Amino acid sequence: MSLKTTITRADILPMDEFVKVRKDKRAEIVGIKKHRRVGVGPFCTFYFENYATMWWQIHEMLFIEKGGENQIADELHAYAPLIPKGTELVCTFMIEVDDAVRRPAVLAQLTNIDQMVVLEFGPHKVRSVPEDDAERNREDGKTSSVHFLRFPFTPEQVAAFRAPGTRVLLAIEHPNYGHIAVMPETTREALAQDFS
Questions:
Q1: What digits encode the pLDDT tens for the residues 124-157?
Q2: Would you tell me the crossing angle of helices 185-192 and 155-162 to the nearest 10 degrees?
Q3: Backbone angles phi, psi at 165, to 5 degrees
């Protein structure tokens, strides 16, 4: 099967059809997402997206909000850009602080964190490029708890990342949140499929 890098209106099921396959699709997506999540430090989690995860997200939003045909264009506009185009990885980056009292103070210390994320493997460093759909860092320094990041790869970097057993580090180089995680091999293998 060829790599799907775009989603269009033609990919969206009517809700009555989606309801019939929703339970099975949910189980399938849980299996896919299991190998596309990486936690870094105590608060940050990266959810690497692909066609399947965005197809599911759009359908779930339509199912929950019941906006019908009028909602479809908005959901496609919001989520279609998060599907990797074959030369990049794309993720939803969440800063998850459970304590509601502590959360604003943590976010206030992490301005521009979305520009300080790096994938490192062998001699390669691939820096994050924040999605420019909205400004997620306020003038007072507080950052958003949700960011969307791209990691653009050169062909040489794609080949190195795809090599079985490549040790990949996901690092946050923010002065107030310097943490690194080793990407599990199962995750590297799953993300390697995002390249064409």
A1: 999 999 987 656 666 676 899 999 999 999 999 9
A2: 140
A3: 85, 0
CA pair distance 43, 107, nearest whole angstrom: 10
Would you list the domain boundaries of the chain? 9-192
Burial tier of 147 (Cβ tally within 10 Å: 0-12, 13-18, 19+):
buried
pLDDT digits (tens, 9 = 90+) for 56-66: 999 999 999 99
Structure token digits, residue 102: 């502590």
